[in-house]
Amino acid sequence: MAIAQTRTLTINEEYGQKFAASGALYERARGVIAGGITHDSRAFSPFPIYVDRAEGARKWDADGTELLDYWVGHGSLLLGHNHPAVSEAVAEQLRRGTHYGACHELEIRWAELVHALVPSAEKVRFTMSGTEATMLALRDARAYTGKDVVLRFQGNFHGWHDYAMVGYQPPFETPTSAGVPASVGDTMVIARPNDIDHVRELLDAGDVAAVILEPNGGGWGAIPINPEFLEQLRGLTAERGVVLIFDEVITGFRFSPGGAQQYYGVTPDLTTLAKIVAGGLPGGAVVGKAEIMELQQFSGDPDRDRFGRVLQQGTYNANPLSSAAGVACLTQVATGKPHEWANRLGERLRNGMNDVLQRRGVPGLVYGETSTFQIVLGDWIHEAIRTSDVAALGQGKRSAAMVRKAMLLEGIDLMRNGGFTTLAHTDQDIDRTVEAFDRVVTRLQREGSA
Ligand SMILES: Cc1ncc(COP(=O)(O)O)c(C=O)c1O
Questions:
Q1: Domain contains 1
Q2: Together in a domain, 235 and 132
Q3: pLDDT tens for residues 84-125?
Q4: Which residues does ligand 1 sit against, CB inside 6 Å?
Q5: What is the CATH number of the domain that holds 287?
Q6: pLDDT digits (tens, 9 = 90+) for 176-192
Q7: Which of 251, 246, 250, 247 is closest to 269 using CA atoms?
Q8: What 3-state class would DSSP assign to 132?
């Protein structure tokens, strides 16, 4: 017979016990995988959760524990795990071949859907990830304008290539990763979000090719955007002949069928997409003005093709499996139904959690738009949002690990300090999450972490 427990376990102790199989897998992983993980944002102390299978809004970990999922493929699964339309399309394509080393009709159908849905998408070019998409968009913009410098915003995330590493985390002038040549930093200027005067000042000072930003605000909205700022940015860049790039890797097909640009009514010159565009399989895209995108076209003039053309390759670009998943997913997206559902649940979740904070007298805020939510505890959050204090907001995000851990003990997986609602979540899931959050907040207060 088990010895009766004489005291309640702490969050950390209970985590170690409840997810023991994940702990064992992590030990194994550390023997062969650098750092034990395959994506930096999966780093978690004392070990990350290992998942065995998923369905709808749920996934099951290595111990067989059911988890209600708000991480949902890093935001790529607007329809939830294994949506039948996507799964069947992929299964069907699997039988027909995974890689033809050739052009195929599905890639055209996929591009036609993207073109029909996204306002800025006069032309489309597929990549394999969001990182590749922002890398290509910067190259397109630099080639188009003949200028090197790109203006970006503090705390915005644009993937992990060298150019994206300058300006992501404070101190913003120092690349967030080691191994980035100092000369890369010379081609990036960093602006404060929501501050059009600062942008104007930086545009005045240099020969800027492009302005890139997450249109809902850095860190998928952790630093909320002022929609008026988007309009001002559009006006200013158009006036100066600077290419405006919306990084819609998160917001694309989520904020609306046409993404954040349709949601806010501001059309950029170029847009980067990934995640939902490929229905949860690997994939991304750069879309935008034909006259910019056509720099990628072979003209037949050897001089122009050698010196004036933008090169892009990639073995798996628009591979048949990703194309099949993309077509199936975007066909659902085009109806607008997934958004209606997921947005309503997102609002219910944010309201429910904020009610909990108020009722329990815990300072903090659960915020976000459409089907996104971010949880921050502490009364500093209101001032940080008001002043777009990127350093404080980034810190708040990183210090949310205890909320995530305590929610995992309730059988709920967040993406760091928040997540995404999907077509697969239900009202009951939201009720259950709000009830769990109530217990978590109480527990964090008791353990001195809230
Ligand atoms: C706004 C934004 N841009 C770019 C990326 C990079 O995309 P990927 O992880 O597909 O390389 C991400 C990833 O989360 C993102 O959120």
A1: no
A2: yes
A3: 999 999 999 999 999 999 999 999 999 999 999 999 999 999
A4: 74, 129-131, 134, 157-159, 214, 220, 247, 249-250, 274, 284
A5: 3.40.640.10
A6: 999 999 999 999 999 99
A7: 246
A8: helix
